[in-house]
Amino acid sequence: MYINCRVCGGNVQEFVDLGRQTMANGFLRPEDVEREYFFRLAVGMCELCTMVQLLEEVPQHLRYHDAYRYHASGSESHRKHFAQNARRFMESELTGPDPFIVEIGCNDGVMLSTIAQAGVRHLGVEPAGNVAELAKAKGVQVLSEFFDLATATEIRAEHGRADVIFGANTICHIADIESLLLGVDVLLGPDGVFVFEEPYLGTIVGRTAFDQIYDEHIFYFTVRSVQAMADRFGLELVDVERIPLHGGEIRYTLARPSKRTPTPAVGDLLAAERTRGLAEPETFERFGHDVERVRGDLVTLLREIRAEGRRVVGYGAPGKCTTVTNYCEIGPDLVPFICDSTPSKQGHLVSGSHIPVRPPEAFAHDYPDFALLFAWNHAEEIMTKEKAFRDAGGKWILYVPDVHIIG
To answer: E strands, 78-174, where?
Structure first.
């Protein structure tokens, strides 16, 4: 099966199918189970521009709403990272007489709150009303809309052009990438930069991190595909930087053509991608086989533990856990509940698999024999915090890059 590429119109050829899925952050109340939205979670690569993307998409108004469950400030590592981002912008790009920064998808203000505290002119664009209110409570100026050409035009008319347009784990969520980039063109100042941080396809493939594939992630970027996208919409990729967030992301910096000299990192990562075959069908065929192997190994392990009369509970309920539990057909029979520190998820069910989400106290109240770590990208932070679990003989189960146990 193929569709037309959302970036260039070329054929998108399917390479992996993760089956019937539902919304990753659509944590349900028990009474809402009958109204779940399902779709086929399949991914393909454009034969022309090499952009990897979902074949089907969930309408954005169903994904982002007033009961959106993801709060970016929930992790200490996230708070540190985005505070550092804010300081970096203020030291480099926001140094003029009246600088202005716009963040697309500001969530709960994890980055812009530092900007606001410094008195720098800013605006967050956040369609999910509940997290937008959390950002406003931190002193962040927020426009509760989706970012597109029309919104960007309104912002420019009221506030002028932006020195920085920023997005973190947001740009890959926006299916109408044409309207977004036309909006960036309208809003960005002549010497400004468009900076975004997103999951890296090289990490997903290299670590068999198939749980990074879910409804919110429409696009799966590489340096090559971002460069092609930037060229198509009159921008230039001038810098790339690896960052550790979510197991390994890339920070991309785009500017207007000839305004900045591309750094050597751009060419270096392009060469590395060619060596790794990140635009070759054979690479994705191997990835598909690796995903199937991980599924088989994980389900076999969980069934063996159950047969031995030992207990497993889940730890962390990021959107990724929806992909894993549904693709692997893991339900409450294998994992009775998942503990998560986000209050808005507690008392709800993971979409599709219907595993209950409970507060962290449920984990410590009666330690299980094993904890299946869905929030594996925060493994170090979590394992340090839960040292008592390991001291009591508990063991962690991880499935990235393969299924293994840490005692």
So the answer is: 100-104, 121-125, 142-143, 162-168
